[in-house]
Amino acid sequence: MPITMKDLRRAGKFVMPGNAACPGCGALVAFKLVSKVLGKDAVYVIPACCTSVIQGPYPKSGFRVPVFNMAFAAAASTAAGMAAGLAALGRGNVRVVAWAGDGGTYDIGIQALSGAAERGDDVLYICYNNEAYMNTGIQRSGATPPKAWTKTTPTGKAEMKKNMPLIVAAHGASYVATASIGYPFDLVNKVAKARDKRGFRYIEILSTCPTGWNYPVNKTIELARLAVDTYVWPLYEVEDGKLRITMRPKRRPLREYLAPQRRFAHLTEEDVRALERAFMDRWEALEKLEAAGRIFV
Known about the structure:
Oligomer: single chain
């Protein structure tokens, strides 16, 4: 049965007041939703990222779940070892979750992620994607969209972002999905589906960031919705090699998404049209993959 608002209200609260998140932090919204679905029988491996700061300094914590902090590059391999150890102890009911930002997923942690996905380790890997290295000062990552300002791309990033969900899917992961905090029920139901599967599962959540994207803090959820509805962030899942788009965009103009974010303030109309074409190309490619039936053998 799909998760409802009543289910979420009845679920426990695993994030406490007084944590160290920035106002309007999309990553914290994502963690609140995910932790409600996974409940008390989950342990989180968190590498260097915003969340390792949000949780608070040892020996205190803003989270009411077990957390194991790990070096930037090693979240997936640490989670794989932890899952194997718990299984050996007869604790297979505990879900091991690697919770990492885009820097620790797309770039610094990609080798460990690839290895765990190839082996089919029993890990749920969740990337909360705020599209740059926010914790270390807003440097570009492999997830940063083209034309976006960061401290290391002051005139706008030149390259398209990696297509990480499909890269993971190509490893034969048992479940891959994208999600957005702007569409919470799509998100929580994908987490529930991944929770109940075995093997390597991967969910990537768009986690809007007022600090790095430079927008008013009250627009966090609005922008997370607009990313979906302007084709910037497609929502889909890959299960048993089959891709399914889970939500169709509402065809809003891309300008509505870009305008509130000062990281895109330098864009010309020509730049906006180029971005529209780039995102539509990716959307049309997804539609073709969906229509093809099985996308990987």
